[in-house]
Amino acid sequence: MPTIRAETGRPSASAHRETANDRFKETFGAWLWGGIMAATAFHFGLFAFFPELTASDVSYGVSEFEAIELPPEIEVPPPPEAIRRPALPVVSQTELMEDVTIAPTTFEENPVDNLPPPPNAASRLSDRPVFTPFTVAPRVRDPAAAAKIVEAKYPSVMKNAGIGGRVLVWAFIDANGIVKNTQVRESSGMSRLDDAAESAVREFDFVPALNYDRRVPVWVSIPIRFEVRH
Fold first, then answer.
1. Nearest to 179 by CA among 159, 152, 149, 154
2. 105 lies in a domain?
3. Who's near 117: CB < 8 A, 6+ residues apart?
4. Are 192 and 155 within 8 A, CB to CB?
């Protein structure tokens, strides 16, 4: 009988097939060194041709402030003192003696043609200070404006010399609140200040006095003070 032999061993080269992994391993070295050279050339070109970077100035400056001088304060003189309200008239009781008689008045002794003209009460009232009844005293409409008038009337010579004084002025104020007449009640001792006080009061504008619900002309006293303030 024929003898059968079993042969073992590696297959021949003709029987071995080349795989993709084998091909990759064969080309790995070339790809590695090619990548290193490409990365080197890229970084060299990046550093060689990249624009130069400069640091910007981020410092800040301090602006200077200029001091502005404020104008001097203007002192406004105080308003005139409150006008004193005169006392209302009081009717007193008078006892007449029994032997007091009144002479009869006849037209024969006093003819109508020879009668004197009726008295002008308004003009007589404004001639000199007299008691004038009222229930609401007159008042200055604008105390600030009145203070400016007094300041303007202050004689400059006396103001610069520091000379002042107080003048009490009688003022006759008509039913429309207009000053029609003035007189010095208490002098300052200096005629120039007295005249300036009267001149200032004549320019004051008043709310007229009232006797109940009716406007009435009245005499009132107004204090005017001239003084220099520092």
1. 149
2. no
3. none
4. yes
Q: How many CB atoms lie within 10 A of CB 191?
A: 10
Q: What are 172's two structure tokens? A: 């006759």
The pTM of the full predicted model, rounded to 2 decimals, is: 0.47
Structural domain total, the chain:
1
What letter would DSSP give residue 128?
S
Q: Tell me the one-letter amino acid at 60.
A: Y
Within 13 Å, how many C-alpha atoms sit on residue 182's CB side?
22
Q: What's the first-to-final CA gap in the chain, in angstroms?
A: 157
Residue 15 half-sphere exposure toward CB, CA atoms < 13 A: 4
Q: Is residue 216 part of a domain?
A: yes
pLDDT digits (tens, 9 = 90+) for 171-202: 999 999 999 999 999 999 999 999 999 999 99
DSSP state of 171: E
